[in-house]
Amino acid sequence: MQAPSKRSDILARIVATKRDEIALLEGRALELRARAADAPPARDFHGALAAHPTVRVIAEVKRRSPGAGEIRPGLDPARLASTYERSGAAALSVLTDRDYFGGSLDDLRAARSAVSLPALRKDFTLDRLQIDEARAAGADAVLLIVRILDDARLADLHGHAVERGLAVLVEVHDAAELERAVDCGARIVGINNRDLSTFRTDLAVTEGLLDRLPAGTVVVSESGIRGGDDMERLGRAGVDAVLVGESILRAPDPGAMVAELAAPPRRNRA
Ligand SMILES: O=C(O)c1ccccc1NCC(=O)[C@H](O)[C@H](O)COP(=O)(O)O
């Protein structure tokens, strides 16, 4: 019998799964490129987050996760997205990974088409084909996780996404990754409070890294944000936005939770 995977193996397993998925996309390269080129203009993800007097909320559509197990398995992405929009969210983040998060590109399409908010495809991007696939499915932004990309690939994927008209959320967890994000020209940096080896979250990760970013960079604090006190703390630190999944999705009334999180004032870092 196979031994259960350690938490520290999860990211490596996810990356291996993505490589298999990319191999299947290779036969569809021309079709994806054509559909990406024909996609309607992307909504302004950067503008939804930048230079607002209050902290903006990116609300997530996530059915389950490796760290938390089942979160809201039967969720209706379109209904949830409408609730988020009515409650003051500035953008959507939709997990599209199937094997580990129970998501899909259909979730992305359904959520985005129910609202006028920009939508991030939250997945583990390793290849240009996934970016074309995201654009073809209507995504407005993609995620690049610095930890799983070398410098050349990070720069290439960032450039490709921008060329395709997508915003890019470049995710970091420590100072070395932050330097690499800056070097690749990131305009939006996500500081992940979750250590992807242990799944522990700590908002001090954001507080410790944020002031190292150049003025004008949009800063998103990601993961482990549980309520109004956390929002005020991150607003004092000066983040532009937060990305919140589990605490909204486990709330009996997700709309009320988004409303509770929305709009604490933020310190101006400039
Ligand atoms: O959430 C996990 O367990 C996880 C494990 C491995 C890689 C990524 C993971 N999460 C993806 C995310 O980035 C979160 O969904 C997002 O930051 C929201 O976090 P939270 O508010 O804590 O649900």
From TrEMBL:
<comment type="similarity">
    <text>Belongs to the TrpC family.</text>
</comment>
<keyword id="KW-0210">Decarboxylase</keyword>
<keyword id="KW-0057">Aromatic amino acid biosynthesis</keyword>
<dbReference type="InterPro" id="IPR045186">
    <property type="entry name" value="Indole-3-glycerol_P_synth"/>
</dbReference>
<protein>
    <recommendedName>
        <fullName>Indole-3-glycerol phosphate synthase</fullName>
        <ecNumber>4.1.1.48</ecNumber>
    </recommendedName>
</protein>
<feature type="domain" description="Indole-3-glycerol phosphate synthase">
    <location>
        <begin position="11"/>
        <end position="261"/>
    </location>
</feature>
<dbReference type="InterPro" id="IPR013798">
    <property type="entry name" value="Indole-3-glycerol_P_synth_dom"/>
</dbReference>
<comment type="pathway">
    <text>Amino-acid biosynthesis; L-tryptophan biosynthesis; L-tryptophan from chorismate: step 4/5.</text>
</comment>
<dbReference type="InterPro" id="IPR011060">
    <property type="entry name" value="RibuloseP-bd_barrel"/>
</dbReference>
<keyword id="KW-0822">Tryptophan biosynthesis</keyword>
<keyword id="KW-0028">Amino-acid biosynthesis</keyword>
<dbReference type="InterPro" id="IPR013785">
    <property type="entry name" value="Aldolase_TIM"/>
</dbReference>
<dbReference type="GO" id="GO:0004425">
    <property type="term" value="F:indole-3-glycerol-phosphate synthase activity"/>
</dbReference>
<dbReference type="Pfam" id="PF00218">
    <property type="entry name" value="IGPS"/>
</dbReference>
<keyword id="KW-0456">Lyase</keyword>
